[in-house]
Amino acid sequence: MFKALADYGRLMRAGTALARHDVILPGEYHSRLPFPAKLAGKTLRLFGGGAKGRQGERLATALEKLGPAYIKLGQFLATRPDVFGVETTTDLSRLKDKIPPFPMKAAQKALAEEFGEDEARDLFPDLSEPIAAASLAQVHRLQTEDGAKAIKILRPGVENMIGRELRAMKRAARTVERVNVESRRLEPVAFTETVAASMEKELDLRLEAGGADEMRELSFKAGYFHIPEVDWERSGKRVLTTDWVEGKPLTDPAALDTLSVDRATLANMVTRGFLDHAIHHGVFHADMHEGNMIITPDGRLALVDFGIIGRIGMNERRFLAEILWGFLRRDYYRVAEVHFEAGYVPADKSVGDFAQALRSVGEPIHGKSASDVSMGRLLLQLLDFSHTFGMRLRPDLVLLQKTMVQVEGVARAIDPGHDIWAAAEPIVKDWITQNLGPAGAAKIISQNVKDVADRLKRLPEVMDQFEAQLNKPEPAPLPRERFAPWWGWMGFILAIIGAIVAVSVG
Fold first, then answer.
1. Among residues 287, 305, 415, 419, which one is catalytic?
2. For residues 90-101, b (16+ Cβ closer than 10 Å) or e, as one string?
3. Could you tell me which residues are beta bridge partners of residue 124?
4. 238/379 same-domain check
5. Fewest CB atoms less than 10 Å from the CB: which of 29, 122, 334, 494?
6. Residue range(s) defining the domain that contains residue 240
7. pTM of the complete model
8. Residue predicted with more confidence, 1 or 249
């Protein structure tokens, strides 16, 4: 019960910030809301302090002030244009989390706790002042006999802070799903779990080290990106050390001009590198914004910060490749079939009707110049039909969707005339040839036979578990379980009332 009260207190704090920035029942949605919601929205705006800017900009500002867990939530909300619209999600995708660094004394203490005082003194003798600081960690530079190193250290106590905020978010998602039946199609609980799982991985830098090392191996095969090498001796759960990458991040407006980089080549490298990793290997850097991309003096594109690594299975890779290939060939019926085969559209819907909807998305972009064609926007428009055709959120595709939008935005910022279709075609065509031709068909059959054999091996164990569940007596409901719906409603009401009161007295 005390945890529940603490969670609702944090949600009230979040409600206060959102109300101040007019993102709870915003004026932009006034005409679409029922009368009670319109009245509540007007009341909140009376105490909102005259927030300026578009809804997405106001929401991004509010989330930035709430801290790292909410910044991460905003980054994931940017993957739901079907809910918030393309303009709002574009604003959210620009969320930054630069904050002042923590003291050197705290950094030295973190190193001593991770490695022991004597070893930390030997491994990190001349640690620099912080070079860059974000909400989860900060980076220092260290000169060694093997060259310069980048030392990433987590902020003191960040794990506990993130844990508390994520717990409150999960409670809010459960409340929304309980009181609003329509929301269940959007899977708020599954969505929040995806956000939480991603953040929890970012808080163990050993996992980031493993991801960086894996991406470095892929970079040798593909050749699109430079990935710094991990210094395993100087890395642990709260400390990550890699080779220092000399160069300028793409957030620096002068980075491309001063280094005389060919913009068209670089934009192609960004798009093809991401698609090669995702489609050919099922692994990709899932936070590809400009701050994580550095142009080296010799013109290479380096990736840093591997806290989020995305993974998709063979079925999802085939789904992505066939959708892109279908649009490239204007074969909308095949694109529709792929959605049904993958189970993304319920079987009781019409393949022909869905193909017709896809045609209305794809045809307007054909025949236009490259600068007027946006693959990211096209993919986002597909989501507009999710409600009509009963499609549900796939949490396993959230990271892929988010990263595709990021990649397209970065590529077009580098080269406004970037033809993302031309860049994607050789990667997609190569994968289609390898995996859906005769050799690919044999590979799929072989894998299916193996999967069936594995399932048959587990059948006796599954049947035993099923029988045990059938024979298990059903426990009597606990008082807390009986009143769970009431608690959900009460928490929801408390959050809204608390937001209004806090704003009115602030």
1. 287
2. bbbbebebeeeb
3. none
4. no
5. 122
6. 100-133+136-167+193-244
7. 0.70
8. 249
